[in-house]
Design a protein that fits this description.
4-stranded antiparallel beta sheet; 9 helices; 11% strand
């Protein structure tokens, strides 16, 4: 169960996103990070009950840094105003489809899949969807899946036309235009702070598992 103090810290950070404030209140950040890490650990344990690939994954390997890379950004705020983790085999840097968890006041979410894969993996996913279109459709059109996620996230960078090398009239054309293959469920802060949240998150992620499994087959055994 996430503590309210963790959300309170993120609210304060958003209002005071500068190094002086952060350094003076670093103990608040360390408390919030530890609280979040414990929550991620608990969620990993529940996911592992139906997805053995994440069994034993270190929560620390799933967490994202709070420090922003501002080198090429117009926004020079030094810190992210969220805590996030991507639970997947090998940790968040392994490039597999995983279970993403994002805590930010008024912008919390559960998500999954693969975000902006590199060109070789993107091509592998597109080819796998094209060759296994009916299987993919069955997954994303399943009643429980649509109830939790409605549809795949489209993204502003979605292609306007079918990518080169694929038939223009392919029944999977709309999916093949995507550059990311993810699903998202937005959450309010009340749900995040509920003592039932770990179980609720695990239930949502279980519905997501066939989608992740499909993508991981695509990038592991490219056609």
């Amino acid at each position: 169960m996430l503590k309210k103090s963790t959300l309170d810290f993120l609210k304060k950070l958003k209002k005071n996103n500068n190094r002086d404030w952060f350094n003076a209140n670093k103990h608040l950040y360390e408390d919030a990070r530890y609280d979040f890490e414990v929550l991620v650990f608990d969620i990993i344990q529940k996911i592992a009950e139906y997805d053995e690939s994440v069994s034993g994954v270190d929560p620390k390997s799933c967490l994202f840094r709070i420090y922003r890379d501002v080198r090429f950004s117009k926004n020079k705020s030094p810190y992210k105003t969220n805590l996030a983790a991507d639970i997947q085999q090998g940790g968040r840097k392994s490039n597999f489809a995983g279970y993403y968890f994002h805590v930010e006041p008024d912008s919390c979410m559960l998500a999954g899949g693969i975000y902006m894969p590199p060109p070789d993996k993107l091509l592998a996913i597109r080819r796998f969807i094209a060759d296994s279109y009916k299987e993919f459709e069955k997954i994303v059109r399943a009643k429980d899946f649509k109830k939790e996620f409605k549809q795949l996230w489209q993204g502003e960078d979605k292609l306007k036309t079918i990518p080169k090398g694929f038939e223009k009239e392919h029944p999977a054309a709309d999916y093949l235009k995507n550059k990311s293959f993810i699903v998202i469920q937005e959450l309010d802060d009340v749900k995040i702070l509920s003592n039932k949240f770990v179980y609720q998150a695990a239930k949502v992620f279980k519905t997501m598992k066939p989608f992740n499994d499909f993508l991981n087959r695509a990038v592991t055994f490219p056609v």
